[in-house]
């Protein structure tokens, strides 16, 4: 009996694997080679599946069926497979109570309306819903989604538009369907070519030939004696060095072994090469590499602060413009109605909100009519031209500042601010540690260095304080933006802006007025 039980269990696992494959590709699992098995084997197989399913966490159970939706399996088939496995189909739309994950397969009967729709195949726009735990609370006056209820789509949207959307995204399974070829996402392999520099045959006393070559390109045009450069570096007045020159010197700075060789050199100074003489002179200054970095910051401070200020102000104004644009808010609610119609949520429980990142997925849903060309985005363009007298098709004109943020990264702006702050800390550190105890530095030189770096530190500190106020204002606008759209607080502002900008630019490109202007 034990041997027979082992055979039955092994065969049950095989049947479950075959059934899972069939469910994944959207075929019914009751094919002849599965249906002809004995009742005992069927019961054993189902028990094994249920036992394995019970061992999985609820999120793992639902994630497997969500993947089936993503690869194109009709939702009706996925829900039927879930009921067959004793799993609650409501988990596809969001978390379910812990006790409602599993359902009774024998007692659960399909509602009559679902049975009636079983012959319907629908291509849905799988928009992203923000989990309640991660959703920003709406502002006291209400969010964009609260101004107009999600109910009443039939009254807001014309019957002609609703019929057109159902014509594009709904098909009777009884009809002869041609399998639409899926657009494959071509993965682009970017080959990064590494520049191979030829080795120099000439011998360099200490530095490698390539380092010597790079440094010589900086030093040959230099008119100042090396000791003057070192003195000016110590008091931050070597502004005749360009930012490119300083970056090259820092990049070609001697390694540990090369620095040791320079320190141990006891020959004639004049017998050294140009690069070695320059480095020997410069390294007599306390913390020369750090002072070069401070000098670079001094040369770039004004331009970096100006550019950072302009970009932060632009993003702040763009967020304010986005939240105050009446047309854009109406477009977002129109997209909500569009999605509820396409997903057939009007008659059941329409979605109140969606994540802005869903705008990037509209082109992923193919229509039954000419699927190689027509997508959900194409259908929406036809939809927006017919609804509300077509006056929303130029909504992008009200958010022109947002479109200017196409190449702006808020994360990069924050990183730039942090780099400036790190530069300030370095300058402040050198100002505090400048002392006559440093080798080769007199009291007067130490005092000059301390005064120069202290003054520059105060200058950088003043710029950082002004920038900090701008970033605080940007953060406040970002929080209101998240509350206004009830967005995911864990998502970056860059992700939201990227979705909005790309969507608006696509709409502008499809606008017939813009098309005529581009060809004129």
TrEMBL record:
FH2 domain residues are 112-520
**GO terms for CC?**
WASH complex
Write down the InterPro entries for this protein, in alphabetical order.
FH2_Formin, FH2_Formin_sf, Formin_homology_domain, WASHC3
Q: Which SUPFAM superfamilies match?
A: Formin homology 2 domain (FH2 domain) (SSF101447)
State what protein this is by name: FH2 domain-containing protein
Question: What organism, scientifically named, is this protein from?
Answer: Phytophthora ramorum (Sudden oak death agent)
């Amino acid at each position: 009996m034990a041997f027979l039980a082992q055979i039955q269990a092994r065969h049950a696992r095989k049947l479950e694997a075959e059934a899972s494959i069939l469910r994944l590709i959207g075929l019914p699992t009751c094919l002849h080679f599965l249906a002809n098995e004995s009742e005992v084997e069927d019961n054993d197989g189902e028990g094994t599946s249920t036992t394995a399913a019970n061992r999985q966490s609820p999120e793992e159970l639902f994630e497997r069926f969500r993947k089936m939706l993503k690869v194109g399996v009709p939702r009706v088939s996925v829900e039927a497979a879930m009921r067959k496995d004793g799993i609650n189909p409501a988990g596809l739309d969001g978390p379910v109570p812990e006790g409602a994950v599993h359902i009774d397969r024998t007692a659960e009967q399909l509602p009559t309306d679902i049975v009636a729709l079983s012959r319907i195949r629908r291509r849905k726009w799988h928009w992203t819903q923000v989990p309640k735990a991660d959703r920003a609370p709406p502002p006291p006056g209400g969010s964009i989604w609260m101004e107009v209820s999600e109910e009443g789509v039939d009254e807001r949207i014309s019957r002609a538009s609703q019929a057109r959307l159902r014509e594009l995204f709904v098909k009777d399974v009884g009809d002869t369907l041609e399998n639409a070829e899926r657009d494959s996402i071509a993965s682009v392999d970017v080959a990064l070519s590494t520049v191979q520099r030829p080795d120099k045959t000439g011998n360099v006393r200490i530095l490698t030939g390539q380092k010597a070559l790079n440094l010589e390109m900086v030093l040959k045009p230099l008119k100042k004696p090396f000791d003057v450069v070192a003195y000016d570096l110590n008091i931050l007045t070597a502004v005749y060095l360009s930012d490119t020159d300083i970056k090259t010197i820092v990049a070609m700075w001697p390694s540990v072994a090369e620095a040791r060789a320079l320190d141990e050199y006891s020959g004639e100074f004049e017998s050294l090469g140009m690069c070695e003489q320059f480095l020997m002179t410069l390294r007599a200054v306390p913390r020369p590499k750090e002072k070069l970095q401070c000098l670079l910051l001094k040369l770039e401070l004004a331009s970096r602060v100006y550019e950072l200020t302009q970009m932060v102000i632009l993003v702040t104004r763009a967020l304010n413009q986005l939240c105050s644009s009446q047309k854009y808010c109406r477009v977002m609610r129109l997209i909500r109605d569009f999605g509820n119609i396409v997903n057939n949520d009007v008659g059941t429980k329409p979605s109140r909100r969606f994540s802005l990142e869903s705008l990037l997925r509209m082109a992923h849903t193919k229509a039954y009519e000419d699927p190689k060309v027509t997508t959900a985005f194409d259908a929406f363009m036809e939809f927006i031209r017919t609804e509300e007298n077509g006056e929303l098709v130029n909504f992008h004109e009200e958010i022109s500042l947002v479109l200017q943020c196409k190449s702006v990264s808020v994360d990069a702006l924050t990183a730039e601010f942090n780099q400036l702050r790190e530069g300030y800390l370095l300058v402040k550190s050198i100002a505090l540690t400048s002392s006559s105890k440093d080798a080769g530095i007199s009291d007067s030189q130490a005092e000059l260095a301390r005064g120069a770096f202290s003054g520059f530190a105060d200058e950088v500190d003043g710029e950082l304080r002004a920038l900090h106020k701008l970033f605080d204002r940007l953060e406040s606008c970002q929080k209101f933006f998240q509350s206004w759209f009830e967005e995911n607080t864990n998502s970056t502002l860059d992700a939201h802006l990227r979705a909005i900008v790309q969507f608006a630019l696509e709409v502008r490109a499809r606008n017939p007025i813009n098309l005529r202007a581009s060809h004129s």
